[in-house]
Amino acid sequence: MQLVSLAVVTLLMMGFATHAVAAPSLEHQVVDAEGKVLNLSDYRGKVVYVDFWASWCGPCRKSFPWMNEMHSRYKDKGLVVLAINLDTDKDDATAFLNDLKPQFVIGYDSEGEVARRFDLQGMPSSFVFDKTGKLVKSHVGFFTERASEYEAELVTLLEQPQ
Length: 162
Hints:
By secondary structure, the chain is α/β, with parallel strands linked by helices. The chain has helices at 2-21, 58-74, 90-100, 113-118, 147-159; strands at 29-31, 37-39, 47-53, 79-85, 105-108, 125-129, 135-140. The strands form two sheets. Strands 5-4-3-6-7 form a five-stranded mixed beta sheet, with helices on one face. The protein has a two-stranded antiparallel sheet with strand order 1-2. Strand 3 (47-53), helix 2 (58-74) and strand 4 form a beta-alpha-beta unit.
């Protein structure tokens, strides 16, 4: 019995350690299409919507027009939309982007290092950070029927003082 308890405690501790390592934050880097490093922390002071996507993800196709709209509507009010691609073949991402024509920041994480740190549970996955860089919301999937709810979350954060 004591051995079983020790095993359970060990597994729990391993789980906690995994979650301690997986830390959605702005303390990560990705690269842009030209390979230039993008520091997520450079966006501190703004409301940051980080979205992980891939070309094979159906719901990602639905989220991109919404992200374009949010970017257009709120960029001058302090919103940054950063969509991080997880395709291992950049050509797949390029075809997707040529089709959907995003107007917001696109980053690449082809090795999945940042995605692992964010402990993704599905695709797309989005993370909303307030102006101080604190994670305040996360969503798995994109549901068009909840788009007004997602927008309201952003507006609330944009209206808050720094």
